[in-house]
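#struct-help
A.M.: can someone run this one for me? Single chain, 380 residues.
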Amino acid sequence: MASSLSSGDRTDVTRLGKGEKLSTIERIAVLAVIGTIVLFDIVGLFLPPGLDPLTAAIGIASTAVLALYLWSPLIATYALGVVFALSFIPGIQAQVLTVAAFAAGLIVRLGWTSLVLSYAGVFLLASALVATGDSTNVFNIAIFLVGAAVSGAVGFALRIAFARGRTLEVQLAEKAEQERQAVLAERRWIAGELHDSIAHHLTVVALHVQMLDDDRTSSESQEAIRIAARKAMTDLRFVIDLADDGPRSEGMPSGDLAASIDEARDEFQSAGHTVLLSGDPTDERIPRAAEIILARIMRESATNVLKYAGRGEVEIRLDVDDDLVAMTVGSPLSVTPRRELSSSRTGIGRMAERVLGASGEFDAGEVDGRWVVFARLPLA
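D.P.: on it. Structure tokens below:
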């Protein structure tokens, strides 16, 4: 987290773009000061020897004008100029100049470059005018100038502080959003890992549970259920262990494409399908990243075949050249569903996400009465 202004924020402060409104604490402080001064001025009207009503009215007006800075610095500055002009009638221009010196801090805190520069010029001119009219006020004028400089410095410091606070608030909001997105990404990752692994094994179990009543396949189905359950527990432990550190490429499963294809072929054959395999899944030209993606697609495709395919041949084709690797999984469509198996309805989307995320091409749909899943990845 940054503890100082960024270059962009520092430039904005230096250029004195239009300042933001005062904070609640600042408003309370300004109103408290104004209220205290006005109260003393009002009390002074009734205490001996008493103040001239016009003098008191202009003094109170000069202080009350400061309240206008809470709403409009430009209008407040104009009003202060009018009060200063009127202060020459009772001869209390030095008193109004004191208020103007205090207002310099509000101008720097709230104003913009042209207003600040104009105010500074007019303040110097007013100070010179007061000094010219009464040479005994020269020392007081110096005090007014120093007071205005100190007030302006405080206003500028507050402006920088609030700009820094604004920057930190933005950074904190961005960090909170990044953390929220990271949590969501981890949840999606865990859900995806469970879908890609556990859902496949549960599909195998559900399939063979429905085949247990057939004496010819009962023993094979029992063995298939046992193997699927063991693999599901292994994958579940893997996902839980890996979730401790979040998704990391080095912690992902090996993604052995040949093993995934062999497992899918055994499952197809166990479900009564014949399998046609072409291509070499152990081709050394296939990079590890592509192998992991294709292995996941093979597993998801196997899940879908076991759920929805009709009777017939399942084709698995792998084509590799020096630039691309492509895998096609084709299965016969079923006129009527053979089995009522649950579905998360996210498999195709996740397959597409994996392939497209690696700058590849993905397609899944009906082709000539068969369901075909096609994925192509660049080898570079």
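A.M.: thanks! Residues 20 and 256 are 60 Å apart (CA to CA).
D.P.: also worth noting: Strands lie at 274-278, 313-320, 324-332, 361-367, 370-378.
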